[in-house]
Amino acid sequence: MNVKAPPQQAAIVAILKRATGHITAGRLDEAEKALQADGKIALKTPVGWNVLGDIHLKAGRAREALKAFDRAIKMAPGFPEAHCNRGVALQDLGRLREALRAEDKALRLRAGYTTAHFNRGNILRDLERHKDALAAYDAAIAGRANFAEALQNRAYTYLDLDQPAMAMADFRAALTHNPRSVASMLGRASALRQMGSGGDALVSVEQALEIEPDHIDALMLKHQLLSDGQAYDDALAALDHLLALHPDTARAHVARARTLSQMSRFDDALAAADRAIELEPRLADAHVTRSLVLGEVGRFDEQVAAIARAEKLGASGGALLFSRAMVYVEQGDYEAAIAANRETIDLEPNAFEAHQNLAMAYFSTGLLAEAWPEHEWRLLSPHHPAIEHGRAASKWQGEDLTGKRLLVYCEQGHGDTIQFLRFLDPLRESGADITFIAPKPLITLFSRNYPWLTIAERAGLGVTYDFQIPLMSLPSVFATTWETLPRDVPYLRPAPEYADKWRERIGDEGFRVGIIWQGNPKYGPDIHRSIPLTNYAPLAAVEGVRLISLQVFHGLDQLDDLPSGMEVERLGEEITNNPSGYREVTGAMANLDLIVTSDTGPAHLAGAMALPVWVALRNRPDWRWMNEGTESPWYPTMRLFRQKERGAWLPVFEEIADALRARMAGAGNPV
Length: 671
Known about the structure:
Structural class: alpha/beta
Number of strands: 10
Low-confidence stretches: none
Mean pLDDT: 92
Helix content: 40-55%
CATH class of one domain: Alpha Beta
Distance between the termini: 113 Å
Radius of gyration: 33 Å
CATH superfamily of one domain: Glycogen Phosphorylase B
């Protein structure tokens, strides 16, 4: 015989059923109105207050939710669902330890309570107790094998622990049970990214965007993946699309600032960082990013202030330490820079940027033995050609090369390639068949001077190698010290026909000084080596000096606006447009008495040719010029002139002019 529930109880059940139906459908206002029916009789029960708390939780009203759950527990202290939900409200309020106690209470009241185990895992993850979180998710999944959200969150915890393969397994399982979960698709993409499968990761993000085209996290991750692949224009487009939909997303403006900085669009990057700060003044990451951009453009005092603001807002981690290390270098405190980079590495052992910066600081202070191992971390950069050439063969570590095929490849700018070219000489008697991949403009010059090498722009199809190594890794394999550094010059010589051609064109009148004042503006740090041509005016005032432009491509417009009394000879388009690679330039250089340059690429070339070359350096120059002294251990015919104060170039050139007078009088340094 069926026993009917009392009328009031039946009414309460109906109200609660109606309210939970509205909650499931996302109609929270309707759910709350339903609880008000029949004189609020449902709120005379602990279940009614628990349902009201759930409404508040889903509406983002954690404080009101907590009050509702407390009311339910006061009415029924042994109500496990209310304790379980109370834990979620406390978690939302940031009261994590209280939240954990609430879930523990729910589990004491109901052993094996799957939802409480799941909530417990979420709280433990927020507490960064990742291994304990895994155990909690394990318990939740043991209670419900198809618990997609628990599988997903366990996967994210594996990502926190740098275990992407384990995460992948859980994301796949979660998607089996919930195939349209955008969060799981994005998690799978993050795992693939950690595993180095950027292309597959991008496919997963695109699948998520098919379901939710406006999803902020999906668009942010798409940007990150495109940035990883150096597709900066596409990465920027992804952010611009995001900001068209969600213009006030501060973290997207931060990401935009970093991408623009990578593109050397520093003014735009600074504007993006400023916009992020305008939207969220207390967003620490925006201030960290702003500090990094300020460092790139040499506004170091402002960078210091930005770092201080970021720290006040609680910023920490590798990016902040990276920025702080930049400031230490600028201040000449290399010990502090070394310490900051080491601290970054302690926090993030695989942060290759910190290892690279540590190498630069070691180099700058002359600590070669410490620098070479750290320098190898550059190979992990997502932009390094090791990604491509590393597939050709295993990296050479010093094995016997007799009868072997070795691929050596350049990896950075022309100046770096010329500087490290000397390390090919020890391989000459190795018994190996060596192919060297070089920049196209340098191939003819290198081939003439290194006839025993096969020099090409690409490795070539169908060619197999026993070993491969980037050019700048050779000194590490050789364990190079200052005593063993190859410094025999010249190791580059011009073709006689070009030297003869320019001897006739330039002539032998006066003291012939070739000058270069600007590098490639697409190179980020170019701001520190490209200077106004007018700074060279003190040299033009030295009696008997002929200033001859060796400038190519960039900065040539400055020749049209010289101050009164300053004359600079032009050698024509054969130099300015450089149609024959370096052959014309080396021919012209060989017929000069001195080369003076602020751009370090030509400095390397002149040094490798054993020509007298004077280099104007900013107060904190690149690592290869060290942090003090007038001589370069790399080039015996080079002399260094250093800024005493940041940005003060004219005193440097007045010093160069005085040295030039002394040299012409036979009383100066012969170099």
